[in-house]
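User: Predict the structure for this protein chain, please.
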Amino acid sequence: MSFRQVFRMRTGGLGRALTSPVNGVRNFCRDRRGVAAVFVAAAIIPIIAAIGIAADTTLAYLLKSRVSAAVDAAALAGGRAYFKPDAERDQDVLDFFYANYPDGYLGAAIVVPDIQFIDDDPEFDDNDTVRVKVRATMPTKFMRVVGIDDVSVTSEATVTRENSLLDVVLALDVSGSMRDNIDGNSTSVVNDRRISLAKDAAKELVNILFGSNATSNFLRIGVVPWGGKVNITDFGTTYGIDPVSGGAQPPPLFTPDPLGATVDHPFREEHYYFEYDADNPPSRVANPFSSPISPDDSDDRRRYVLKNWTSTIDEVYIAHNSKVPLLSPPTAGWTGCVYARYARTSTNLDDVDDLLLAADDKLAAYDTLAIPPGELAWVGWMPMGSEGEPVSGSADCDMANLNPSHGDDCTPCPSAGITRLTSTKADLITLFENSSAPTNIKAESSVYTNIPQGLVWAWRALMPDKPFTEAAAVVPNTSNFRKRRAIILLTDGANTRRNGDAYNRALDGTSKRDNRLRLIADRIKCKGSFAGDPACEPVDLYTIQFAESSGSLETLMKDVASDPDAVFYYKAPTADELRTAFQEIANNLANLHLSR
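Assistant: Here is the predicted structure, written as C-alpha cells:
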C-alpha cells in the first residue's frame, strides 16, 4: 500500500483534499462525520448556565424557607415579650431567630434583623404589633459563569397581639408564710414579702393581657385570696357596711329568698356531729352513731354539732356585700367565711370516698326543685360564725371545744374578699398595690394553707353558675369569638389542716387533702374520671410553686396543672422567676398570630 493511500485512510476527507486538491475539497465539504461534537461544544455553555441557575435558584428557595421560618418564630417571640424592657424583648427576638437559623447556613450572610414594636397600629385595629424583617445574601455556585456572584432573599413577618374571649381567675395564697421573704425569714419590709412580690408579678400579667387598653370587651379577670378559709364577700367591703357611704346598712341585714314549703335537705343533724375520744386525743371514733347521742358517755366520748346547723330550710339568705346564698343568717361579727358546701352521705367519718365526692367539688343545682339524678340538693353554705378567733378554744370558733389541748383549733378569715370578674384594668392594678388599706390583699398571721378551698372558690368565681354569675354575661358583638377560661393557682406551701377549717377536720392528714385537691382539679380540667362527660366545661389550670422547692409539692402542683410541663406548671423559687412565670402565662393566654 502506497504512502498516499495510507495517508488518505488516516486523514479522511482532509487527507484526500491535501493529496488531490480539487476532489479533496469537494469530498471534505460533503463529509458530515463529527458534526454532533461541534454542536455540543457550541451548546455546552448555555446548558451549564441553565443547570447552574436551577441549582442556585433551588438553594435560594431553601434559604428563603429557612429564613422565613426563623423570622416567624422571632416575631412570635417578640409578641410574647411585648411588655418586657426594650433590650430584653429585642434579645428574645434575636435569640429565637438564631435558634431557628443555623449559623452559616448555605454560606449566607445575614443582615441584623430589623425589629419594630408598634403600639396602636391603625392598620391592625389598634392592636399591638411586632414586625421582624431579615435580608440574607448567599454566594452562587454556578451562576458565576454568567456573572452573577450572589443572590439575596428577604423575609418579613408581622405578629398581632389579640385576645380571644378570655376569663381568668387568680387564686392567690395569703397564708402566713407569704409574709416572709424569699428565704423564708420574717421581714417587716412590706415590699420584700412574698405576697408583695406575687402582687407585683400579677400586675405584669394584667398589663400584658390588657395591653394599652383601659377596658376590654374580650377580657375579664377575677381574684380569689385564700388561706385556710376564703372570704366570700366582695373585695373592699365589710359585712353589713354600705360599700358606697361606709355607714352601717339599715335592717334587714339579709334578703330572704323563700323556697316555699319547708324543705328537707342534706344538712341533717347527724352529718354535723363529730366525736372524739377524750382519753386519747385527738383520735376519732369511726362511727359516732353506734351508741345513743350523749354529751359525755362512759367512754368519755364527746360529740359536737355546728352552731349554725338548722333542721329545716324555708329560706335562703343573701348577706349584704355577698352574693353567696346562706342557709342561716350570720352573726353580727361575721366577716365573710363559710363552711365548705358539703354534707356527709355516710355516718362513717372515715369514708374517704364520701368526702372526696362531696358536692362542694361539683357545680350542682342551686334550685332544689331541679336536682340532677344522683346529686345532692345544694342551696347554700353555712356561715362560719364570728371570725378573728385569736384564742385556741375560743367560744367564737365552732370547732374550738372539740379538743382544747390542740393548739390550732381556729384560723382567721382573710380580710380581703373575692374580686369578681372585671374588664377594667385600673380596678385590678389598684388591687395589687401594696397599700395599707384594711381590705388590701395581704398575708396574715396564723393563716394556714388549704389549697382545695382556694381552688374551689376560684372555680366558682370563674364559672357562670351561682353564686357568681359574671361569667354568664355576654358582651355585645362577641358571640362568635372562641371562649377560654383559666385559673392561675399560686402557693408557697403544702396543704395543712386544722380543727376549725372549712372541712371541719373531716380530712385528717395531708394525703387525703392532696387527693381531694387532685379530684377537684380533674373535675375542673375534665380529666380523670370526668373525661368524656359532655356536661364538663374544661378550664386551663396553671400552677405556680413559689419560693418553695420540695419535690412532694412539685409533684402535687404538676398533678393539678393542665399539663405537668410548661406552659402550665412553673417552679419559681425567686422573684425574677415568678415574674417570668406570670409573663409566660399571660403570653400563653394571649392570642398571637402572624398577620402576614
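The chain has eleven helices and 18 strands.
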